[in-house]
């Protein structure tokens, strides 16, 4: 990546994984760009960023994407089998195919080259509200009613 950027890594893993990341950062002279925060109880409390990047291979319901949107943060995520494409829309971020490092790199470089986020963070809260507890249960009930109605017709 070229340009003015900073990556903050939140989360933890086993010692070998953490060492691997630290060695990668050191071997590629990325210390001025990468900060490894580790586990943080409330990462959104003092976080100022343009994008949240999720590189998971598998997710159930990736709450971190919903939380990011609720905080007005655009998302970049691997389009793993479940979750991200239900949350991220053309209005709130970018999806890339899991494992496609070239595609992810291209998205990140575009974000660095055009530092103004092309999304309206005020819309993110509305987009993520469909996952609020009350709305979620309404959607489940509506879906079950649709299934029940179509079963009666068939």
Describe the 3D structure.
- This protein is an alpha/beta fold and 154 residues long.
- Helices cover 44% and strands 14% of the residues.
- The strands form two sheets. The protein has a three-stranded parallel beta sheet with strand order 3-4-5, with helices on both faces. Strands 1-2 form a two-stranded parallel sheet.
- Strand 4 (74-78), helix 3 and strand 5 form a beta-alpha-beta unit.
- Helix 2 packs across helix 5 (121-128).
- The longest helix has 21 residues, at 133-153.
- The mean pLDDT is 88.
At a glance:
The protein is built from six helices and five strands. The chain has a three-stranded parallel sheet with strand order 3-4-5, with helices on both faces.
- What characterizes the major β-sheet? 3 strands, parallel
Provide mean pLDDT, rounded. 88
Structural class, judged by helices and strands?
Answer: alpha/beta
Question: Which series of helices and strands comes N to C?
Answer: EHEEHEHEHHH
Note the total helix count: 6
Describe the strand arrangement of the main beta sheet, using strand numbers.
Answer: 3-4-5
SSE layout and pairings?
Elements: E1 7-10, H1 15-27, E2 34-38, E3 51-54, H2 63-70, E4 74-78, H3 84-87, E5 93-96, H4 101-113, H5 121-128, H6 133-153
Parallel strand pairs: 1-2, 3-4, 4-5
